[in-house]
Specification:
The complex is a heterodimer of chains A (180) and B (388). In chain A, helix 4 runs antiparallel to helix 5. Chain A has six helices and four strands; from the N terminus they run αβαβαααβαβ. The relative contact order of chain A is 0.28. In chain A, strands 2-3-1-4 form a four-stranded antiparallel β-sheet. Helix content of chain A is 48%, strand content 13%. Chain A has 180 residues and is of the alpha+beta class. The model of chain A has no long low-confidence stretch (mean pLDDT 87). Chain B has 388 residues and is mainly α. Chain B has one domain. Chain B contains 16 helices and no strands. Chain B is globular. Classes of the chains: A alpha+beta (180), B mainly alpha (388). Chains A and B meet through helix 5 of A and helix 10 of B.
Chain lengths: 180, 388
């Protein structure tokens, strides 16, 4: 009873296989739900597609990192060998750009990789010591052999009873309320 | 599973006849060119032959790579590479005319080479009989590995013996190493010795990198052709196409890496006997060819292939593959051309020989592709690959 007074994070349905989960996601999208997430023990590409391609900002962050790294790598070499400490080496021009390419390339990769890792953490909110989905006891099985679909309570179409009924109709193993 | 599920489409016959007709017409035109301008004919013919040979033998190398690594990508295009490998006899036949034009092509094969002390030092290697003998050895070695792998593959179709995967893998390992070695020597013979004073130890891997690019680009075009009709229409999935896009991307980077390494080492060393090769490619019109290579063999396809959507759409990917096939031919022109003429120029024989060798080669290729099912039906991992 106490749970019913608590604000809800959402409703969670448990499925025995990926096909049922994908069908449920498609049905939910048809029913007008937009705020949902799915959990599978291993990456299932169709799940990602069924959820709709909510485009990640990560590629753009990586691109910015790469360009920044290239500028930084080339700039460092240009500054040291042309401005800060010009030396005549075998009569080559001070701005020996062909020789700068390997380091520029390495810096591009390095900074792009750093941006990837840091951007990933920034976007997915990890590390996160608390998440409401773990309030569902059986959710631990998501990393073993069960497939979960969670519809968020902040979805404009969310209704405690109607959404629970909708999820029950998708042939789940179980539907549970997720306390926030 | 029955092999009838993946029988080649009937269109392949039409492609075969069209290739043969176009190839024959172009061959007749090229033969006329032989009498009009003998030297030009051989110069154009060498580049045309190297282009199609690279697609077929680069395919053999890539197939050996896939035998070693495993994975759905190799299974789904193995028959394209196998058919390419089976064109080796046709490629050998098409190589024979080159032997009659050695003194038109190579400075070291001309009488005036006797007056060049540097060529005289290399004469034990650079002479006509040894050149032909080495070519025969390369063909024999590639043929043995190709034949052995094809025989195992045929047996796999018949018996579906799962142990054959391992056998092909253990043959492909040494095969790939030996291919790398022989193709390096072949690149020295057929391209680098056009400029017998010059040498670069990275030339071989650059040559092989270009072959890999053209082989995977051609395979992508065949996938585009096959996935447009049954039975392969339902077999190729975006996941497979994505792999070919990524592989093309990787091979472009590999080619660029070798190209830049070769340039950088020579530029840093700054020795006049080495830099002369690049100096020839920075003047008299050749500088625009060099620039085109950097832009369209590297920069533009690099940016185009960053897109995930393009890598997963076979029609969009096929356009990039066509660009790279064209640029691979430009790359061969760029490597050979400055040895023939200081000034960049385009001759109609460049085109007709390319179409002639290509038409005849494609005819041999389609005959080979038609003979077997389009997927290795005896592969234990086929079902898994189809559902990738």
């Amino acid at each position: 009873m106490r749970l019913e007074q608590q604000p809800l994070f959402g409703l969670m349905a448990e499925f025995g296989g990926p096909r049922r989960l994908i069908r449920a996601i498609e049905a939910a999208r048809e029913a007008g739900y937009t705020e949902m997430d799915a959990f599978t023990p291993y990456p299932v590409e169709e799940v990602w597609e069924a959820l709709g391609h909510h485009r990640s900002k990560l590629p753009a962050i990586v691109l910015v990192g790469g360009i920044l790294g290239a500028i930084l790598g080339f700039g460092l070499q240009y500054w040291t060998s042309v401005i800060a400490y010009p030396l005549n080496i075998g009569g080559r021009p001070l701005n020996s750009w062909p020789a700068f390419i390997p380091v520029t390339f390495e810096m591009t990769i390095l900074v792009a990789t750093l941006f990837t890792v840091l951007g990933m953490f920034a976007l997915n909110g990890l590390p996160q010591p608390y998440h409401p989905v773990f309030n569902v006891e059986r959710f631990a099985l998501a990393s073993r052999d069960r497939y979960f679909l969670c519809i968020g309570a902040w979805d404009p179409n969310f209704d405690r009873e109607a959404t629970a009924e909708f999820l029950q109709a998708q042939e789940p193993e179980e539907v549970s309320e997720v306390a926030s | 599973m029955t092999s009838a599920r993946f029988d080649p489409p009937a269109d392949l016959d039409r492609l075969n006849k069209r290739a043969l007709t176009v190839g024959a017409v172009a061959a007749a035109a090229s033969a006329a060119g032989l009498f009009l301008d003998r030297t030009q004919f051989f110069q154009s013919y060498l580049i045309a032959w190297l282009f199609w040979m690279g697609i077929a033998m680069g395919g053999l190398g890539t197939m050996m790579l896939s035998h070693m690594t495993g994975g759905a990508w190799g299974l789904m295009i193995r028959r394209v590479f196998e058919a390419g490998t089976r064109t080796l006899p046709a490629l050998v036949a098409l190589f024979l005319p080159i032997l009659f034009g050695l003194d038109d092509l190579f400075v070291w094969a001309r009488p005036e080479a006797a007056a060049d002390p540097l060529i005289q030092v290399k004469a034990w290697y650079l002479n006509q009989p040894f050149f032909a003998l080495r070519a025969a050895a390369y063909f024999a070695i590639w043929g043995v590995f190709g034949w052995a792998l094809l025989r195992l593959s045929r047996r796999q179709d018949e018996t579906a013996d799962p142990g054959l995967v391992r056998k092909m893998q253990s043959l492909a390992g040494p095969g790939l190493g030996i291919y790398g070695l022989t193709a390096t020597f072949a690149s020295v013979d057929w391209l680098m010795s056009l400029d017998p004073h010059w040498y670069s130890s990275l030339f071989g891997v650059y040559f092989i990198g270009g072959q890999a690019v053209s082989a995977i680009a051609f395979a992508i075009l065949m996938v585009a052709f096959l996935s447009n009709r049954e039975p392969m229409q339902s077999a190729y999935r975006p996941q497979h196409i994505h792999d070919y896009g990524s592989l093309l991307f990787a091979f472009i980077l590999l080619w660029s890496y070798f190209g830049l390494s070769q340039f950088l080492i020579i530029w840093m060393g700054n020795l006049s006997e080495e830099t002369v090769w690049y100096l020839h490619r920075q003047q008299h019109g050749w500088q625009w060819v060099s620039l085109a290579l950097v832009l369209f063999h590297f920069a533009v396809p690099f940016i185009l292939l960053l897109s995930r959507r393009r890598k997963r759409n076979v029609k969009a990917l096929a356009k990039v593959a066509i660009l790279l096939l064209v640029m691979h031919w430009v790359d061969l022109v760029w490597q050979a051309g400055p040895a023939f003429s200081d000034h960049f120029s385009f001759h109609w024989l460049d085109l007709t020989t390319l179409v002639a060798v290509g038409g005849l080669w494609l005819a041999a290729f389609t005959v080979a592709l038609r003979k077997r099912s389009l997927l290795p039906v005896g592969e234990p991992y086929l079902e898994e690959a189809l559902n990738a």
